Amino acid sequence: MDWIVTHWDELLLIVTGLISVASAIAALTPTPTDDRLVGALRRIVEALALNVGHARPAPPPPPPSAPPE
To answer: Is the entire prediction scored with pTM above 0.90?
Structure first.
C-alpha cells in the first residue's frame, strides 16, 4: 500500500495512457469486440474513481425536426 501511495502519480499516468491508447484503437477499428473491452476498462476506472453517475456526459439533444412543407 505504501508503494501505491508513493507512486500514485506515475500509476495515474500509466492508467490514463493505456485508456487513451485503447480508446484510439477502438475508434479506429470497426470490430465491436475491442469497443466492449474499452467500455469494460472505462467502467472499472469509473468505479475506482467512485464516479457513479454524477460526472457522465449529457446525452446529445434530439435532432431538430424539419418544418412541414
So the answer is: no
CB 34 within 8 A of CB 25: yes
Q: Would you list the domain boundaries of the chain?
A: 24-52
Identity (one letter) of the amino acid at 27? A
Q: How confident is the model at residue 45 (pLDDT cuts 50, 70, 90)?
A: confident
In our burial notation (b when 16+ CB lie closer than 10 A, e otherwise), range 16-50 reads eeeeeebbeebeeeeeeebbeebeebeeeeeeeee
DSSP category for residue 7:
T
Contacts of 54 (CB under 8 A, 6+ apart): none
| Alpha carbons 38 and 45: distance in angstroms, whole number | 11
